[in-house]
Amino acid sequence: MSEKPSVLFVCVHNAGRSQMAAAWLAHLAGDRIEVRSAGSAPADAVNPAVVEAMREVGIDIAAETPKVLTVDAVQASDVCVTMGCGDACPVFPGKRYLDWKLEDPAGQGVAAVRPIRDEIKARIETLIAEITPEGQGGAE
Question: Across the strands, what pairs with 97?
Fold first, then answer.
């Protein structure tokens, strides 16, 4: 089957960690992976410090908006990565669940967001290697 893998990133507000993770995955994997993000209690807007930190690495997420977590989004995803939302994410058989312990960027400035951004990038690079078929868009 040639269907591409899909990943859902979930945090409480969908305003920081999950937005950065989704942006990194879309940026690094291109169209090889379908990307979604959502929050169990979405904020009104993406954290401005997160927008600025991502802008520093050439990724513009200023137009993104927090989205509410739905059962459909989880069902439609192969991998669900939670980031501090506890049991808010519904569990379905056959899905892969990862829980990434990351500091919450809420209320913090850009300087505090940068190391979170960089840690998320490293985790995304590992995730891409784990879920994409070998040789598909590789560097060799």
Answer: 80
DSSP 97: E
Active site residues: 11, 85, 89
Query: How many whole angstroms separate alpha carbon 123 and alpha carbon 106?
Result: 20
Query: How many Cβ atoms sit within 10 Å of the Cβ of residue 94?
Result: 6
Nearest Cα neighbor of 77 from 6, 4, 129 is: 6
User: 86 pLDDT band (50/70/90 cuts)?
Assistant: low
Distance of CA 130 to the CA centre of its chain: 15
Q: How far is CA 124 from CA 7, 26, 27, 53, 87, in A?
A: 11, 10, 10, 16, 22
Q: Do residues 95 and 24 touch, judged by C-beta distance below 8 A?
A: no
Give the CA distances from residue 139 to residues 27, 29, 136, in Å, rounded to whole numbers and listed in that order.
Answer: 15, 12, 9
Phi, psi of 79 (to 5 degrees): -125, 135
Q: What is the reported pTM?
A: 0.91
Hey, which residues does 35 pair with through a beta bridge? 7
In this predicted model, what pLDDT tens digit does every residue of 94-140 receive, in sequence order? Answer: 899 999 999 999 999 999 999 999 999 999 999 999 998 764 544 43
Q: Alpha-carbon distance 37 to 100, whole Å? A: 14
